[in-house]
Design a protein that fits this description.
65 residues, alpha+beta, two-stranded antiparallel ribbon, two-stranded antiparallel sheet, 1 helix
């Protein structure tokens, strides 16, 4: 079985560096939140009413963003 390897050719592509950020950071910046907020994360908060959170996500009573 024969195989070929190409090393040292001019086929290499330039390196691309991508800048990633969390959804919370992006959402907070775009919606001018005073504190970072991930609209898809809910935490237990006794006494919090059922409501519609950011991005139209409904949450049950006892939870908040």
């Amino acid at each position: 079985m024969a195989s070929a390897a190409c090393f040292g050719t001019s086929l290499a592509q330039p390196v691309t560096t991508l800048r990633f950020e969390t959804h919370a950071a992006f959402f907070s910046r775009e919606t001018h939140q005073p504190k970072p907020l991930d609209p898809q994360v809910f935490v237990r908060a006794p006494g919090a009413p059922a409501a519609m959170g950011p991005q139209g996500i409904r949450h049950a009573a006892g939870y908040r963003n």
